[in-house]
Amino acid sequence: MEAEVEIKKEVEKTPTRGRSFILRYILSLIFGWTFIVALLSMIGIVIGSLFGDGGGGGYFLGESYVMLLTVLVVFGVLHLTLAWSVDKRMILDEKAEKYTKVFGTIYNIGLLGAAAGFLVAILYPLFGWMTGLVDVAGKETAQVVTMGIISILLLLDMARYQARLLPKIPKWAYPVTMGLASIITIVLFMIFPAGEIRGAVKDQKIIDDLISIENAIDDYVSDRGGLPSGLDALGLNNLNRDISKYEFKPGNGGKYGYYLKYRLCTDGFVTNGAGSYYRGGSFRDHTKGYNCFDLQAYGGYYNSGGGDYDYDYDYDYEPRYNM
Question: Residues 117-131: pLDDT tens digits?
């Protein structure tokens, strides 16, 4: 009899949940899916950078990286907070019980499906490497396997928590595990790929200045028929750095109607963009430190007599070099 009274008291102490619970539960699932996609995306970028495949890319990825970081933090906090709130001991009414089972099952099917996809991604290069049927480098295989293992473990942990498997594991283990995984990923992200992006952003400011100087020299030659005596003659005052940071070295002279050669040099590049021409043309093709760029300005054309025009396309100049 006393045991029945104790059970009754425990039941009375356990709150009943309905619509409010359903809303928080569904939102925790939606936020959870967004959170895990952002987390795995960031982990993939970090692993790519650690394995040296240029995970950072260029300055133009900065905005995308900031958005990804924002999504991870915002939806991670929302998901883990709501997941904690719906994990309290409670009695669900019939409707809440039904919605919980349906949406929870759909959610876990998606998680397990994603985990299966990563398993295939792991086995494919391994089987290809072992059979020799696919030309996969060892570093590439290690990168895919590392990413796949981490992703599968995180996805399975989410599915376990959602399905309430292994009840002996404390309920705080899930938010702590996912929180630590997010923090570690963010720290590595800020050190490696984001560090490369910050360097690319600094270099892009130098490139923007060089483009402005080149355009100003083109205008100067077009108006006056010759190269300026120095960069101060261009009257530029809207550069990212002081004009004294840049060196101007005129090439051969020539008359109006010639392509006049000159060289722009500067120091301060912090990344190696050798071989890259995206945005900024040849200025993207630089190494760390001091670089010089061979350029030419077209002053127009002249009539040598009669009805024909003569052009001097003097392209015979040395390629860009580093000093």
Answer: 999 999 998 888 778
Task: Identify which of 210, 202, 188, 172 has the alpha carbon closest to the alpha carbon of residue 84.
Answer: 172
Q: How many separate helices (H) and strands (E) can be counted in the chain?
A: 7, 7
- The answer to whether position 184 is within a domain reads yes
Q: Which of 238, 231, 204, 205 is nearest to 217 (CA)?
A: 231
- CA separation (Å) from 31 to 85, 110, 118, 195? 14, 14, 21, 28
Q: What is the DSSP letter of 258?
A: B
H/E stretch holding 61 reads none
Residue closest to 265 by CA, chosen among 232, 239, 281, 243: 243
Question: What is the residue range of 227's domain?
Answer: 199-310
How would you classify residue 289: left for phi > 0, otherwise alpha for psi between -120 and 50, otherwise beta?
left
Domain end, chosen from 166, 191, 216, is at 191
What are 6-33's pLDDT values in tens digits?
444 444 444 455 677 888 899 999 999 9
Residues linked to residue 316 through DSSP beta bridges, in sequence order:
none
Closest CA to 315 of 275, 249, 260: 260
Torsional sign, CA 104, 106, 110, 112:
positive
Question: Domain check: are 53 and 118 in the same one?
Answer: yes
**Pair 123, 145: CB distance under 8 Å:** no
71 and 139 inside one domain: yes
Own/partner pairs for 131-134, CB < 8 Å, 24+ apart?
none
What's the CA gap between 211 and 280, in Å, rounded? 7
pTM equals 0.72
**Rounded Cα distance, 272 and 287, in Å:** 4
Structure tokens at 150: 């981490």
Q: Which amino acid is at 63?
A: E
Q: Is residue 282 within 8 Å of 293, Cβ to Cβ?
A: yes
Q: Are residues 230 and 108 in the same domain?
A: no
